[in-house]
Amino acid sequence: MTVAAPDKLQALRSALAGIEIITDPAQLTKLSLDFYHYSPVLTRQLSEKRGDLVVRPANEAEVMRVAAACAQHRIPVTIRGAGTGNYGQCIPLRGGVILDVSKLNQVLWAKPGVARVQAGAKLMAIDKQTREIGWEIRMAPSTYRTATIGGFIAGGSGGIGSITYGQLRDRGNVLALRVVTLEEEPRIIELRGDEVFKVSHAWGLNGIITEVEIPLAPAYPWAELVVAFPAEVGFMPAAHFGQALGDADGIIKKMISLHAWPIPSYFAPLRGSVPEGSAIALLMIAESSVEPLMELIREHGGQVVYNKTAQEASKGIMLGEFTWNHTTLHCRSVDTSLTYLQSAFPADRELKMVQHMYEYFGDEVLMHLEFIRIEGQATPVGLQIVRFTTEDRLNEIMRYHEENGVFIANPHTFIIEDGGRKVMDPRQIRFKQEVDPYGLLNPGKMRTWQERASG
Where are any strands of DSSP class E within 264-315? Predict the structure, then answer.
């Protein structure tokens, strides 16, 4: 689907001689899309969107050449890491260039507590190097094996590790970002401290991230466990166990992921371990904390049905790959009519609203919780699995949650304000005016910018 004029594209290709360019239709389709198909709404809206070509720079100097040429010819640019996002962040709405940063994949340096890496470095690859000195990244999405650090910071919010370290938006979880501007004479800007929020979680709208400086966490040996709660007691005992574990400051943990039945039945590798009808908790716990964990499990009536040491867990599939957005992936691999929500429940150790939504929607909205730390308190966020019928009903479900005080980060929109942002940070608007004066970065995905341009 060509949007840019052919003569502009030819001039662009000439200007980028020596940089890898991809025009093969099959590759162009693959590199124009992400996991938008989790949403039946986005599937209808985005399935035909394509870039005109993919450019894959090998270093920052080549990124600057691409930025300059696209600015000079007014060609839209959509930045891509690994394409593991779910909301169409890296899908080009108006054609143009897909800027694939996967070749910028080096760990530049690492020392105790901090690392400097290129934006296209995969999270798992970063950990492989930093663990050699006893450290690891603080948090990661369930796409840990394939996701890039730049994409995670631009499009993500938290993940495995957030039960201890909160979210990417929390001060101190991103130390510095290096970005290239989209101007006819591109500049390199280094953002440190709170300045990183001008670019983080902005979907690639506010500059091309080339390097990231991130804090590291101590690399504990992480045991992996599945705790089952029998069918006769339902989901809520599992939820209360998750809250108690989140509140247990002396137990070192990395992941608390809870799933109501029948979600565990969609996890093929775990079917032989989980009793029929059981709710489950998927856990990553420091090996030194497993013994006190067992006491907590007994208190809440759970049963350990899967238990791997850190060494055993390092081989084969990781439990983290059944959590966060991968839960939806596993469910949809069995039933493509399923979709999902993204919600944040109010902080309440009694979990009254979790129980209300679990009982109110029953089998239509299957409860899936991830515990994270918000303002110092272990709090459940939901990625509930929804049995999709109509778009109107999906909107009704989200509206009911919001009317009852549950925050919804709508995963069925490609407009950044309609998702989790609601209102754009004025700092980000001002910074976009500075670094992307022609509005070429990921156009069509920020309502505030479109209204400004048309006004």
Answer: 279-286, 303-308
Sign of CA dihedral 160, 165, 169, 174: negative
> What are the backbone angles phi and psi of residue 16, rounded to the nearest 5°?
-105, 20
Q: Using CA atoms in the order 404, 410, 416, 422, what is the torsion angle rounded to 10 degrees?
A: 0
CA distance 440 to 455: 18
Rounded to an integer, what distance in angstroms lies between the CA atom of residue 333 and that of residue 226?
21
Burial of 294 (0-12, 13-18, 19+ CB in 10 A): middle
- CATH number assigned to the domain comprising residue 114: 3.30.465.10
Q: How many CB atoms lie within 10 A of CB 110?
A: 19
CB 213 within 8 Å of CB 321:
no
- pLDDT tens-digit map of 129-169: 999 999 999 999 999 999 999 999 999 999 999 999 999 99
Same domain as 231, residue 371: yes
Whether residue 80 is contained in a domain is answered as no
* Domain assignment of residue 230, yes or no: yes
Please tell me the pTM assigned to this model: 0.96
* Whether residue 326 is found in the same domain as residue 268: yes
Q: Do both 379 and 234 map to the same domain? A: yes
433 phi, psi to nearest 5 deg: -60, -35
pLDDT in tens, 213-268: 999 999 999 999 999 999 999 999 999 999 999 999 999 999 999 999 999 999 99
